[in-house]
Specification:
The complex is a heterodimer of chains A (350) and B (179).
Chain A: E1 2-6, H1 23-49, H2 62-80, H3 99-118, H4 122-125, H5 127-132, H6 134-144, H7 147-173, H8 186-208, H9 218-227, H10 238-266, H11 270-280, H12 285-308, H13 317-339
Chain B: E1 4-9, H1 18-26, E2 37-45, E3 48-56, H2 65-69, E4 75-77, E5 84-86, H3 96-100, E6 107-108, E7 114-115, H4 121-124, H5 131-135, E8 141-145, H6 152-159, E9 162-163, E10 175-178
Parallel strand pairs in B: 1-10
Antiparallel strand pairs in B: 1-8, 2-3, 4-5, 6-7, 9-10
Classes of the chains: A mainly alpha (350), B alpha+beta (179).
Chain lengths: 350, 179
């Protein structure tokens, strides 16, 4: 028998760590979506650089939407900070061993690349902006006339998107004190979940906004630029279907990575096995199995499979489920991870 | 340059919490928080029971995960004594260091920055022991330079069996408990 008592009673630390609430899961989730959208937009840019019509690629609208979503994530991150007035301190130094420092600096580059990528379609999507600020139109025209620049921008999107997606997992992964996070598969898992969620956001936008033309005004045009920069053009009919095909690959990969994560933890130390049980049989088992695996992966996988084989009508519901599952994955991992701890051998009842 | 550490004799500690109160007074620790605390472990099956009472705090690790994860350098290893310190006006309150510490030795100060035991470095610079060590009625706590072979802490570590907390975390803690 081992009985441990402690006089410590620090808020948010005892009886177990709970320093991160909804803000960090939301930030990781939105970061994953943006990462996924960047990779998909980057792939489209590679094809545009080879001479294909930019209007064919619905994903070309996503850089600006990604920019807005990233701001939502950053707002969540800011809300999480407890010493907010000093947030600028991150950018007065570069701490090479800190994943958070790397993430902060990479996000600056991500912002730049997103805005530059948005320039490719922005004047068409938001005519008011092109008329009011001719410089933006000229920049856009120059960019479109240089396939090598678009190709380079495409690569930048892909590399940064993959980096951002993996970073959201590595951020947690490096904390040795929380065994649930101590698996290198967490980075790739969050990346592939982000790819799936990014495809889901594009899928929803492409489906719901078909057939609208870009408003000429300032406010309406701005909205349109976020979600429909194709002007009067309809997204290609195959857009939603190709996104679903991509998503099927992402979901199967996600399922494999979830399996690998559990195997990894179960076959590590006793602390890791105890940590894994938090999500497999413990207090987070229901949201994990039902929310993440069931609603977030298996259900959309089966549903979209039926859609692709034309057995059921196409809807955006699987994409909505993917988004719900993507957020639940981050929420479960952040919360259960905080409870997990290195368990001394004698505490395990041996 | 010294490398400060602490040696605590669990056979002398009675868990009176003088060290906790001294720390709160010396460092103006806000009400409801603590930089150090008492942990009591009872092991075995009645009637063969053993009990270990420990005064615990930040371990000022040689390989501090709180420092390597800090994005601003607020958590840092100070040159003097190689102790782990927090610069309040560099801390953004991201709490990564709190999540990274396997000893849960840190907390968010009501003013927003992260706070923890400083080994009373302001006293040590004046040649004094940390407040907790100086008030201990059983003299079970010892503070000194782990790199000095002639220091009292090293003499105790050579003479007595000891352990540290969660060595498997790889943090190389610098507080040792004599058993």
């Amino acid at each position: 028998m081992l009985e441990v008592t402690s006089t410590r009673h620090n808020p948010l630390i005892d009886p177990h760590l709970s320093v991160w609430s909804w803000e960090i899961p939301l930030y990781l989730f939105v970061g994953g979506i943006v990462a996924g959208m960047m990779v998909l937009a980057g792939l489209a840019m590679r094809r545009i650089a080879k001479g294909e019509d930019p209007r064919r690629f619905f994903s070309m609208q996503t850089p600006l939407l990604g920019f807005v979503l990233m701001n939502i994530g950053m707002l969540a991150l800011l809300l999480d900070l407890t010493h907010r007035l000093y947030v600028w301190r991150i950018f007065t130094t570069f701490q090479v061993t800190s994943p958070m420092a790397w993430g902060s600096w990479v996000l600056i580059i991500v912002y730049g690349v997103l805005l530059l990528s948005a320039l490719i379609r922005l004047p068409d999507a938001w005519p008011w902006l092109g008329r009011t600020v001719p410089l933006i139109k000229r920049l856009s025209d120059t960019l479109i006339a240089q396939p090598s620049w678009i190709a380079a921008l495409g690569w930048a999107n892909i590399v940064l998107g993959v980096g951002l997606g993996i970073y959201t997992g590595i951020l947690l992964n490096t904390m040795v004190a929380r065994p649930l996070w101590n698996s290198a598969i967490l980075g790739p898992l969050f990346l592939v979940s982000g790819l799936s969620a990014g495809a889901a956001v594009m899928h929803i936008a492409a489906t719901l906004l078909q057939g609208r033309s870009a408003p000429q005004g300032m406010v309406g045009g701005a909205f349109s630029a976020l979600l429909q920069p194709l002007g009067a053009q309809h997204p290609e009919k195959s857009t939603a279907q190709s996104l679903v095909r991509y998503d099927q690959i992402f979901l199967v990969t996600e399922l494999v990575f979830i399996g690998l994560l559990l195997i990894n933890l179960q076959t590590s130390s006793a602390s890791h096995a105890v940590a894994a049980s938090l999500i497999t049989t413990g207090p987070y088992a229901l949201p994990f199995w039902l929310g993440v695996v069931g609603v977030g992966v298996l259900l959309p996988l089966a549903w979209q499979g039926l859609e692709l084989s034309h057995k059921v009508a196409h809807t955006v519901l699987p994409a909505v489920l993917v988004l719900a599952g993507g957020f639940t994955l981050r929420w479960v991992m952040v919360n259960a991870g905080q409870i997990s701890e290195i368990t001394p051998f004698l505490s395990l009842g041996q | 340059m010294p490398r400060f550490g602490m040696v605590i004799d669990t056979r002398k500690c009675v868990g009176c919490m003088d060290c906790v109160v001294a720390c709160q007074t010396e460092n103006d620790v806000p009400s409801g928080f603590c930089r150090d605390w008492i942990t009591t472990e009872v092991r075995g099956t009645f009637p063969s029971l053993t009990m270990e009472i420990r005064s615990e705090r930040c371990n000022h690790c040689d390989n501090p995960p709180c420092v390597s994860c800090c994005p601003t350098g607020a958590s840092h290893v100070e040159d003097f004594g190689r102790t782990v310190q927090v610069t309040a006006n560099k801390c953004i309150g991201c709490k990564a260091c709190i999540a990274a510490c396997p000893y849960d030795a840190r907390f968010v100060h009501p003013q927003g920055y992260v706070d923890k035991c400083s080994f009373c470095i302001h006293r040590v610079k004046d040649g004094l022991d940390p407040a907790c060590v100086s008030v201990c009625p059983t003299h079970c706590m010892h503070f000194g330079d782990l790199d000095d072979p002639k220091s009292a802490v090293n003499a105790l570590l050579r003479a007595r069996q000891h352990h540290s907390l969660l060595p498997e975390a790889g943090t190389r803690p610098r507080i040792f408990y004599l058993t």
